[in-house]
Specification:
alpha/beta, single chain, six-stranded mixed sheet, 7 helices, Ribosomal Protein L4, Chain: A
């Protein structure tokens, strides 16, 4: 079982150490699970509202443009046909859902695998005192600087809602704040460092531990 130091905001010395749950942070790293889960997440984000008009949807073409025979031209039945300018589109996109499902077991295994990858890379830090009492982006920058994470791509994981911290970090292009309930493979992989609030470890164990709940 690996242990990491618990950093404390505003102080140079660590506040102790904590053991990382091996079920969550020492799981096998399986790249194919990353692909499956990230693909599911990105597909679910697609609006699927694109559409084109077929020959039944475009205007005009109520009558035959010219008689069938005797004109020397090709026969035409309607100017709504796709070969006409302004005609309908053949096999165009229609509104649809792109989302697809993965089992909870697979999704949980993918998230454990992503967290284990970051732990294996030594990119997991645990800190306490991450909460803010005001909307101040400068405070977030100072906090990360004190923790040795300034200028890096960081995903801050918190247990409960903290509007001050969540809003204050929005202006930082490489920093994101996410609650344990919303922690996902895509965000873990797109950030190089993982900063977990000490209080969030218990919530993470409840979600992904041996008796974990929803993925």
């Amino acid at each position: 079982m690996a242990s990491v130091e618990v950093l404390e905001v505003g102080k140079k010395k660590p506040a102790g150490s904590v053991e990382l749950d091996p079920v969550i942070f020492e799981a096998p790293v399986r790249a194919h699970l990353f692909h499956a889960e990230v693909r599911r997440q990105l597909a679910a984000r697609r609006a699927g509202t694109h559409a084109t008009k077929n020959r039944a949807g475009v205007s005009g073409g109520g009558v035959k443009p010219w008689r069938q025979k005797g004109t020397g031209r090709a026969r035409q039945g309607t100017i709504r046909a796709p070969q006409w300018s302004g005609g309908g589109v053949v096999f165009g996109p229609v509104p649809r859902e792109y989302g697809h499902k993965l089992t909870k077991k697979t999704r949980r295994a993918a998230l454990r695998s992503a967290l284990s990858l970051r732990a294996k890379e030594g990119a997991v830090s645990v800190a306490q005192g991450l909460a803010l009492d005001a909307f101040k982006t400068k405070r977030v920058v100072e906090m990360l600087d004190g923790l040795g994470l300034a200028g890096q791509s960081v995903l801050i994981v918190i247990g409960d809602a903290n509007p001050y911290l969540e809003v204050s970090a929005r202006n930082l292009p490489r920093v994101s704040v996410i609650r344990v309930a919303g922690l996902n493979v895509y965000d873990v992989l797109r950030h190089e460092k993982l900063l977990i609030d000490r209080a969030a470890l218990d919530a993470l164990a409840t979600r992904l531990g041996a008796e974990g709940g929803a993925a």
